[in-house]
Design brief:
This protein is α/β, with parallel strands linked by helices and 689 residues long. The chain has twelve helices and 36 strands.
Length: 689
């Protein structure tokens, strides 16, 4: 038996007090003379023996009472098989408050279960022990020790949070905090549902000098249906166009979903409805069709109904239906086909058309353009080549129609800079187009059906190029002699479409062919830099504002849409970090957005863009480690300092008594002290002289 506070054992000297009282009886006796004392001597001898027995019993009860009371204050315990340090303890308790803790069991939500267990752990500690409370929020107030009362107060304030953490990150944060503690007796508790998506501890990340206790909180059911992702079938969303929206719905349950309902809301009104069937544990792609009736910013919400986990039933997205493609056509001084490009792009609402001549190129238009067409330029100067290199590297699309009268030397110098094949010579032999590469995305969705007898463009003159094996070059349209008519060349973040023939009618009938319009329009559509329609909360993802610049000295703000702000949640307004990366403004939220919904990017009072944020769907997969699986992983990784505390019934109290492998005996000795005092009273009353 050991003692937690052995200095209290000095109190055993108090045993001498009843002993001294017993040895030195200060009662004064008075002599009485009597004639015949024979019978009185026998009576006196009998009374003396009873009195001595009574006094010895009283002395024993007093000594035992004092001893038991001193032992109770010294807090004795019986060491178990696990050797632990004694003294004031530093304890870190993690309470998982991620969305998966909204699951329920017979006692209620898992979060409330975890909070109750955490309170029991705090109650098992001594008043001198210091406690750290930590949740997924990683707030500053969690980076300090609390007293037991302070801990219980903060524990009651814990709410479900959108933040989601890996188990390794949580354990590391607890260990780092305790390492700065001056107390040698350190202990960690993790109260969680131990979702499989949160991973598991690695031996390399664990400090084996700290005892770690895992307290699994198990759900009675782990069924959930949620919207995992959303995307448009078309890369361009324009006012008045018909659109198809896809949603991936996941059924993480043991029962099939029959006639589930998916609703689409745009700008607060329901515009489409679809039903779906999903097998147990399955996944389904559900599509909805609708027509865009609002020009400009559109706020969308997809909604399903699923209980009891509801946080992932709504999926927010947004898009701008005022999308235009900024095109710039640079015509050669001798070209006769500038009107073909002008008639195609200038009258189409999809395009914001710009035009210039090779003798007067405005390079300031390059960064603002999505696609640039070089239409039969005679000479590609080094300055133009350098600007084109920057344009394509930053994600722009370049279309090149060479000129019959091209300065091949200047072309080859520019093509070398752009990593294009070198020009050899102009071939004047007639040929026809043989095949179109439908596997590449340029012609995807252009033809309803492919007819092998379809009429393809004719070519009367085309340039031959050096044949080199390049992984970044693909032949989109091939001629009968094996040369390409159109090739796709990737450079930096952009694309270069190289035509082997001039656009002039004497070289090809391509510009009057039915293939020309869909080819150039699809090239233009694919030149649009992808715009994300949603982001995840609690993540510092870069938000790229293509073709949007802050022209004022005032910082940009990200503000939650006022239509979604409730009375119990303050209106979120943050100033993001802003950087210019590759000629585009990029924002970083530093993980400050924690609420799902729609947000505005404001430049003073001007709305630049609408953003949509959704909770991380990692928490929606309600697949948990069982106690057996946890123990198996602990055995496999050899983590001997980690143990599982499985609640006994609804309580942890009995388990916590053995958490250190020690049996505390102070309550027993306190009861014994009271029993000894009671025995003394009974002896005094029952044994009368």
């Amino acid at each position: 038996m050991n003692f937690l506070f052995p200095t209290f054992l000095f109190g055993l000297f108090a045993i001498s007090i009843p002993i001294i009282i017993h040895l030195f009886n200060f009662r004064k006796y008075k002599k009485i003379y009597f004639t015949n004392v024979h019978l009185l001597k026998e009576l006196k001898q009998e009374s003396d023996s009873k009195s001595k027995l009574k006094e010895l019993l009283i002395l024993a009860m007093r000594v035992l009472a004092i001893t038991a009371l001193v032992f109770a204050f010294a807090q004795p315990f019986i060491p178990g098989s696990t050797k632990t340090e004694v003294g004031v303890r530093s304890v870190s308790i993690y309470v998982d408050n991620s969305y998966s803790m909204e699951s329920t069991n017979r006692k209620g939500s898992l979060l409330e279960n975890a909070k109750e267990y955490a309170a029991q752990i705090a109650g098992s500690l001594d008043a001198e022990d210091k406690i750290q409370l930590i949740t997924n929020d990683f707030e500053g107030k969690h980076q300090r020790f609390l007293s037991r009362d302070e801990f219980l107060e903060q524990l009651n304030e814990i709410k479900i949070s959108s933040a989601s953490r890996m188990l390794n990150d949580i354990l590391k944060r607890q260990q780092d905090f305790l390492q700065n503690s001056y107390r040698g007796n350190k202990r960690i508790y993790l109260l969680s549902d131990f979702q499989k998506n949160a991973g598991f501890m690695k031996k390399s990340d664990c400090d084996t000098t700290i005892a770690v206790n895992l307290v699994p909180v198990e759900a009675s059911e782990s069924n959930n249906v949620f919207i995992d992702s959303v995307w448009f079938e078309s890369p361009v969303q324009q006012f008045g166009t018909h659109q198809i929206l896809h949603a991936s719905i996941v059924n993480k349950s043991e029962k099939a979903i029959v006639n589930g309902t998916l609703k689409l809301f745009l700008n607060g009104s329901q515009v489409s409805l679809s039903s779906y069937d999903i097998s147990e544990g399955g996944k389904k792609d559900v599509s909805l069709s609708f027509t865009i009736k609002t020009n400009g910013i559109n706020k969308g919400v997809l909604r399903i109904e699923d209980d009891p986990i509801t946080y992932d039933d709504d999926f927010y997205f947004s898009f701008d239906a005022h999308t235009t493609i900024k095109s710039l056509v640079i015509n050669g001084k001798d070209t006769r086909t500038s009107g073909n490009f002008r008639s195609l792009m200038q009258g189409d609402s999809l395009f914001e058309y710009g035009e210039s001549n090779e003798t007067a190129i405005d390079y300031r238009l390059f960064p603002e353009s999505h696609i640039i067409v070089l239409n039969e330029l005679t000479n590609l100067t080094s300055g133009l080549a350098s600007e084109l290199q920057k344009f394509v590297s930053n994600g722009g699309s370049l279309v090149v129609f060479p000129s019959k009268n091209a300065d091949i030397s200047s072309y080859n110098n520019a093509f070398k800079l752009l990593q294009l094949p070198q020009v050899l010579r102009l071939d004047s032999s007639d040929t026809r187009t043989q095949e179109i590469n439908f596997e590449q995305g340029l012609y995807e969705g252009v033809f309803e059906r492919v007819d092998q007898r379809m009429d393809l463009p004719k070519v009367f003159e085309h340039f031959e190029f050096v044949k080199a094996t390049r992984n970044s070059s693909e032949s989109l349209v091939r001629l009968q002699n094996g040369d390409f008519l159109i090739s796709l060349n990737r450079f930096g973040n952009g694309k270069i479409y190289l035509f082997s023939t001039p656009s002039d009618e004497t070289a090809t009938n391509l510009l009057r062919h039915a293939l020309f319009v869909p080819t150039l329009i699809k090239m233009s559509i694919l030149s649009l830099r992808p715009t994300r329609i949603y982001y995840n909360t609690g993540v510092n993802e870069p938000i790229v504002l293509n073709n949007i610049t802050n022209e004022t000295d005032k910082p940009l703000h990200i503000i939650k849409d006022e239509n979604e702000t409730t009375d119990n949640k303050p209106k979120l307004d943050i100033i993001p970090e802003s950087r210019v990366i590759e000629n585009a403004t990029t924002l970083f939220t530093q993980s400050q957005i924690t609420q799902a919904g729609h947000y505005k990017i404001l430049n003073d009072t001007l709305v630049l863009k609408m953003l949509s944020f959704n909770f991380d769907r990692r928490e929606s997969d309600l697949t948990f480690h069982t106690i057996g699986e946890i123990q198996q992983q602990l055995d496999e990784t050899g983590l001997n300092n980690i143990r599982i505390l499985s609640p006994s019934g609804d309580s942890l109290e009995q388990v916590l008594k053995e958490v250190d492998g020690n049996k505390k005996l102070w309550k027993l000795f306190l009861i014994l002290a009271l029993l000894f005092l009671l025995s003394e009273i009974l002896i005094i009353r029952l044994f009368r002289n």
